Amino acid sequence: VGTNRDFQFQTVVADSIERLEVVKSPTPDMDADSIGGxxxxxxxxxxxxxPGRRISYSAGIIWRPFEDRDEKPGRRGYSFSxxxxxxxxxxxxxxxxxxMRETGSIQDTITQTPQQVxxxxxxxxxxxxxxxxxxxxxxxxxxxxxxxxxxxTRFFANVSMNKHFEHSNHTNFTFGTNTTVATRDxxxxxx
Length: 191
Prior knowledge:
Number of helices: 0
Strand content: over 45%
Order of helices and strands: EEEEEEEE
Distance between the termini: 60 Å
Largest sheet: 6 strands, antiparallel
Structural class: mainly beta
Number of strands: 8
Shape: elongated
């Protein structure tokens, strides 16, 4: 049990989410200790889709042709969804969702360290270039089994799996000078 109310969204299997329901103020059916609204993530199920067997997939790529530090031919992503309603009364539903996405964040930064004085001019005592590469890979999915007892009563079992991997490679170095400069004492001698 955590000590705060934050939520780690990287643990959510995004391909299994059908919709988000936002409640802006507390309602009587919510916990008594809630101070505001709520966000309800509703997972996909076979009954919320058109009747029959539904199969969908998508594939894509993120490609930066002018960035020689990124992987060629690019970062890939795909998703697959299947849902179907079974039974003589069409009251058993199965839904399967799976996806994988890979994204790269590549950037260069330069940080300058100025002299700590109250008067101008101040000189730059350090320069630090940085090459930053961060690759995130997420994959996961879920299987949901639904049983519809009546139009108002449903039972379900939902199993989810999610993997979030992040690899960072930072290269930085600093060019610097001594920040102490020669000063003169009361007699005019260099210190």
